[in-house]
Amino acid sequence: MILSLRSINLSLDYGFFWPLIAFSLSIFISYLCYPVIIRVSKMKKLMAKPNHRSVHKVRTPNLGGIGIFLAINLIITFLGNYFKDDTLFSVLGATTLLFFLGLIDDLIDLKAKQKVLWQVITAIAIILMTGVRIENLYGLFGIYELYYPVSIAITVFIYILFINSYNLIDGVDGLAGSYAITITSFFGVFFFFNGNDSMFFLCLSLVGSLISFLIFNFSKKEKIFMGDTGSMVVGFLLSYFAVSFLSVNFNPEFLIQNDKAPVFVLALFSFPLIDTLRVFALRMMKRKSPFTADKTHIHHVLLKRGFKHWKISTLVSIYSFMVVLGVFAFNELPINKLIIFLFFLWAISVAVVQNLYLKNKLKKKSKSKEKKILTSEKPEVKTIRLRDMA
Asked: At 144, phi and psi to the nearest 5?
């Protein structure tokens, strides 16, 4: 049998019961938090103001990350001891640090350099506290085991890259939340079948809090955004899942093995990575800073093509699943051939998006020309005064 299912004992002695409780509680706790957060945000006017790159026209509460953080925090605090895994409390410390970093950024707007500095500090701290780092690339680009300093540097780079690329896709309702659920579900399934109960527990907690967040994120009357408070915490947890995925020993009977893990991680993060690399390239081609905010992200392109927010979120989740499925279909290839196949999928994706982007620009230019023609052809209206008629 290719994949042997772990026997599930429904008694309280087995890990099935507590993860189920964690999942239910994360939904319940976060669901109770959001109405309070929305009400306080409106009372204290702690809301996101629409600007030149916003897709919303009204001031909206943007502290949704508080609900996500509180749910995960409380669940780890009260149920984490059951799994006898000290790394959970190290993760809690790291998420707390990034939570306050995101909260400050939502309230007073921090500079990019300040945020990256604290992300680097948090990444180094979690590596040193847990020992979870990328130690081997399994032959990717001819690289195998990594020297300790190189291992630390690459792991920190992955944290910074994944956290910030995830933050950049948070531009339309449901996108960041639904994408995170899709990716976390993959990691959750893997950690369950691989026997990593505490990580499975953490994945369920995150998915539960994101499900209730999406209910309010899509709401018209009680809408709330994730904000940097949420994207920092969720982006960090996704990065931690990825690094853990690359550092654990895989179950020999699992469908994926260690030697292909780096490619699967890149496949899972395809959408935010493609979006980030593409917008950075476009900005530098225009001789602008890659960190200059604009409306060239993939979700902006799709919005201009008439896609609704929920359709964009659904499309991105399906795309992420299909990319991973495509890589899995060619899982027997050597790792460097498999990464070439993944890059080929990325190239096709970028070509499709860029085609839509150029069509949007041409459409905008044609509308501008039509407006100028209509203005120039407008007949001159002469005003005739009564005294001129006398």
From this structure: -115, -115
Q: How far apart, in Å, are the Cα atoms of 321 and each of 191, 215, 249?
A: 18, 22, 24
| Residue type present at position 14 | Y
- Dihedral sign (CA 61, 164, 354, 266): negative
pLDDT band with cut points at 50, 70 and 90 for residue 348? very high
Phi/psi for 61 (5° steps) reads -55, 135
**Dihedral sign, Cα of residue 6, residue 7, residue 13, residue 14:** positive
Strands 143-145 and 60-61 come out as unpaired
Pairing of strands 143-145, 136-140: antiparallel
* C-alpha distance from residue 25 to each of 18, 37, 131, 208, 209 (Å): 10, 18, 29, 8, 9
Please choose, from the candidates 125, 124, 122, 150, the residue with its C-alpha nearest in 3D space to the C-alpha of residue 136.
150
Q: Which strand (E) or helix (H) includes residue 297?
A: none
pLDDT digits over 20-56, tens only? 888 999 999 999 999 999 999 999 888 888 776 677 7
Q: What is the CA radius of gyration of the chain?
A: 24
Q: What is the pLDDT of residues 107-130, one digit of tens each?
A: 988 888 999 999 999 999 999 999
Backbone angles phi, psi at 93, to 5 degrees: -65, -40
- Nearby residues of 239 by Cβ (< 8 Å), 6 or more positions away: 158, 159, 162, 163
Strands 47-48 and 136-140 turn out to be: unpaired
Tokens read off for 339 = 């990464």
Structure tokens at 257: 């093995």
Residues 6+ apart with CB under 8 A from 345: 270, 323, 326, 327
What distance in Å separates the CA atoms of residue 83 and residue 197, rounded to the nearest whole number?
A: 7
